Amino acid sequence: MPQTPEKTTTARSARAILLEKPKALALSTIGVRPFGSAPRQSMAAVLHGDEDERPGLNAKETAQLRGIRRFGATGAVLMAVGALGAGAQPVLQNPTAGLRVLSLPGRMPTVSLTMTMTGTVLVVLAWLMMGRFAVGDIRSRSGAPRRMTRSQLDRTLLLWILPLSVAPPMFSRDVYSYLAQSEIAARGLDPYAIGPKAALGVDHVLTRTVPTIWRDTPAPYGPFFLWLGRGISSLTGDNIVAGIFLHRLLALAGVALIVWAIPRLAKRCGVSAVSSLWLGAANPLLLFHLVAGIHNEALMLGLMLAGIEIALRAVEGSDPIRGQALFYLVAGSGLIALSSTVKIPSLLALGFVGMALARRWGGTWKALAGAAILLGIVAAVVTFVISVASGLGMGWINTLGTATAVRSWMSIPTLLGVGTGLAGVLLGLGDHTTAILTITRPIAYLVAMLITARMMISVYMGRIHPVGGLGIALGAIVLLFPVVQPWYLLWAILPLAAWATAPIFRIPAVVFTSIVSVMLMSNGAEYLPFMIVQAVIATILTAGTLIVFTRNSLPWRSDKPVAEITKGGPVDEDNSAGAYADSP
Fold it and tell me: How far is CA 545 from the centre of its chain?
């Protein structure tokens, strides 16, 4: 029976719809909206909102802030003292061994663990309370009726950092791997081809302190970091304490760059410098793992954020990109490339700067190619110069996957693979964890690549700020990476602290930071279960007692809701500020 024209048209329309849906889905996946489609709420609108300036704290709030500062400093001191016995002390050359007083914490491991746990909890609680004066109620976008000043936050941060700067390493033993790999380079050997055990010998003082899992593995770090480490080794030799001190100075230099860059990036994004520094530089993860833990993420992130800020001075400026503006662009891009020779993930920032530059140059394919060529040349030159000048060559490219030997519960694909494998064992189906990981990890890589591509396109099309796009992309990479360590979260938190202000970001960031910060053992290894239980009980009792004693002097709770203040609206001195200040 022949079809009528109406049925033929309907059939063609149905086929067209079926063909268009996959195309539209593919385009939307990478952030390109098909022509004629209805606009949707952008990622920037969901996560970002401008923050206006607020008046300073009144007398009562200032007094409460001083109490918070002392409360957190007490926690940091407890951590530093407890670390003498519960820190990641070296196996040999322990400077406190044999000293009557300083070795006392080492002879009381449960007490030392309790001190570090209690100190950790106090710092996290102080940080949460300080958030009231930095961002207000994180459950809303209204912000705090009054906000602490930048100088108040800087003094608080400095006071909390000082005790951790002179304490033994905590939460990780990676610094001992840094020392051993740097010594390998100082001896003229290739740290990218040989591990500490083979290069230095199993009985060497530096090898003995390296965790067993890393004694046979080559260095996974870039040539710039090992170049600096080689210089440290040439000064300190086998002196572990001196080497730790100089590596901590490197970490503190990175933290200083972070403190310099975040408020400037926040200003570009319309975010308060104080709120961005509170969530970023004052974050307990940064204090515990970059300062106390001496991780080279401090140097990587500091150089990356500083490079972004300097490069954006040219990209977001009104002057043509030549002369001083061109210098800013090349210098900033060079710093980003330099950060990638510490650890490679920071090189991603160069892609987002390039997308913003291409948009500045007109948003055409020619502009995109020009930006890619210019920044690619800068990255190649910096990487080549550092690799050749350091004498370490390009062998580091082959060791980037060294960390994947660890199975991390914080990694989504690894957690899925290990969990599924465990379920198979319990059901009597056998352990297929390795086979499952070969499936989950490539899928996670693909998803992370798609999210990164989408964010880059969004920056190119002007839908999202490059700082925000970078933060989201790094967040996806961290969570979908085969190995996730607690301090890896800072890769995403720091740039997002300068851009994302919505509760949908700040609440999970604060909750996750608070939980993860108190979970790791301070010695970077394990304790006997009964010791952990005793320390946890003592920590709860101690922290609870302190909360009771300070319930009237510190802002533990708020009986009255914080008044909503709209952007540009007047501040009600009698109601909104008073409600905030009268919180007991």
Answer: 32
Contact 392, 190 (CB under 8 A): yes
Q: Is 254 exposed, middle or buried (0-12, 13-18, 19+ CB in 10 A)?
A: buried
CA distances from 308 to 261, 264, 304 (A): 8, 10, 6
In sequence order, which residues have a C-beta less than 8 Å from that of residue 25 and are 6 or more positions away?
A: none
Instruction: Record the pTM.
Output: 0.85
pLDDT of residue 497: 92
Q: What is the pLDDT of residue 4?
A: 53
Name residues whose C-beta falls within 8 Å of residue 447's C-beta, 6 or more positions apart in sequence: 476, 480
User: Which residues make Cβ contacts (< 8 Å) with residue 334, sequence separation at least 6?
Assistant: 307, 378, 382
Contact 287, 522 (CB under 8 A): no
- The SS3 of residue 583 is coil
Give the ranges where 41-195 is alpha helix by DSSP (H). 43-47, 59-86, 104-107, 109-134, 150-165, 174-186
Q: Give dist(CA 20, CA 45) in Å, integer.
A: 27
Residue 551 to residue 573: CA distance in whole angstroms: 25
Provide the pLDDT for residue 504: 87
- Read off φ and ψ for residue 577, nearest 5 degrees: -70, -35
Rounded to the nearest angstrom, the gap between the alpha carbon of residue 108 and the centroid of all alpha carbons in its chain is: 33
pLDDT at position 110: 84
Nearest-5° angle of CA 438, CA 443, CA 445? 100
Contacts of 336 (CB under 8 A, 6+ apart): 303, 304, 307, 308, 311, 346, 347, 349, 350, 353, 379
The dihedral built from the CA positions of residue 509, 513, 516 and 519, taken in this order, carries a sign that is negative
Residues of the chain under the 50 pLDDT cut: 1, 5, 7-19, 21-30, 34-39, 559-584
Tell me the three state secondary structure of residue 317: coil
Measured between alpha carbons, how far is residue 89 from residues 85, 97, 524, 529, 563 in Å?
A: 8, 10, 9, 20, 49
Q: How far apart are CA 228 and CA 339, in angstroms?
A: 13
Can you tell me the distance from the alpha carbon of 368 to that of 535, in angstroms, rounded to the nearest whole number? 57
The separation between the first and the last C-alpha atoms of the chain, rounded to the nearest angstrom, is: 84
Look at the block and give the residue holding tokens 């080549």: 384
Phi, psi at residue 575, to the nearest 5°?
Answer: -105, -65
Please say whether the beta carbons of 43 and 464 come within 8 A: yes
Q: Quote the pLDDT of residue 409.
A: 66
pLDDT confidence of residue 382: 94
What are 324's two structure tokens? 């001083």
Asked if 282 and 301 count as a contact pair (C-beta separation under 8 A), the reply is: no
